[in-house]
Amino acid sequence: MFTPAITGTGVFTPPERITNAELVKAFNAYVDLQNAEHAAEIEAGTREALQYSSEEFIVKASGIESRYVMDKTGILDPKVMHPLLRQRSDEEPGIMAEMAVEAAKLALAQAGKTAADVDLVICAASNMERAYPAVAIEIQSLLGIKGFAFDMNVACSSATFGIQAAADMVRAGSIRAALVVNPEICSGHLEWRDRDCHFIFGDVATATLIERKEEAKGAHFEVLSTRCATEFSNNIRNNNGYLRRSRPDGVKDRRDMQFMQNGRKVFKEVLPMVSQHIADHMAAEGVAPSDLKRLWLHQANKTMNDFIGKKVLGREPEPGEQPNILQDYANTSSAGSIIAFSKYSSDLAVGDTGLICSFGAGYSVGSVILRRQG
To answer: What's the whole-model pTM score?
Structure first.
């Protein structure tokens, strides 16, 4: 049996950024177009007029101030309202693979390792750009890694579920090291025309190298324990899929083919589930709230994170104990907690304990308890 450790992380940040001001301007222009087009129906009372968004509304609802995306041109065009990504030939690297490779290179460099040291690639994300071949295998090929690779989708919990799978294989000795990569083009599944959610998501790619602690070359985080749980819920859902053309509506533009959620129910049901999950995991490992130096939480909503932090610690978190990055990145699905970990972990002292947690559709929740070493 071997001890798994996180020895490197990497974050690829897309080149284009959308501020709340830009987003609101585009959305409100779309509202004007729609209300003008359907003025007669609105006047007759058979259709409700769309309402404007605002910067104040977005910040109050989420804590988000901006987001990075792979394409802002289409998103900010009131007549398009979705990213415009070039169709690539089958001989070119896919866009998700390309993003993941950049993050993976950063993780390998931080760990002082090369592709020759890795046996497994897990591409863990909430959406894959194709059904097959696996995006993970393409990433493996582009990096020149031997061994094997596979895709994993547990929505916003994909990263922590991927880390558990990799850590278990390292612990069992079936692999020496694994790259868990999380390329998230959330702008592709977001309905930018919906006032209730048009501000939520951004794009990013993260990577985490998990290997045998004994082979770590520098400072690293020992994986003390992992825990995952799921409960079925329809409150976060996307009905797009490969059977779409076989159904009566075919490829008709339907709202349920993009991200949908019942926000009130999610808030009410997910927060107790996540808080209890973390508390039970810590108790099982003998980790007291006072032992926890850092909480790296899923970056979906500041209010949700503040609630969880208070429940877990039994008090209001001190500045820096529960770092948030969603004000800059927005919700990046599975990658959010890994961005927070990557950016806010190097300052911990040897022996300090921290916890990564992600949660989302499923419902799903995954947690990883870590201890700084080296």
So the answer is: 0.95
